[in-house]
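We close this part of the discussion by returning to an individual protein. The sequence in question and its structure tokens are set out directly beneath this paragraph:
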Amino acid sequence: MPQLNPNPWFFIMLLSWLTFSLIIQPKLLSFTPTNLPSNKTTTHTKTTPWTWPWT
């Protein structure tokens, strides 16, 4: 059964992971996000309790 022979596919998988890990991933991680999170002040709204008609 040729699909169980790991000889050509293991090398392809290893080469693709090395390519991703060493070349593509550092290039992707070098991008900075365009929308940096800002420190927003939280606004607290005053809530009033609900008046139930049966109480």
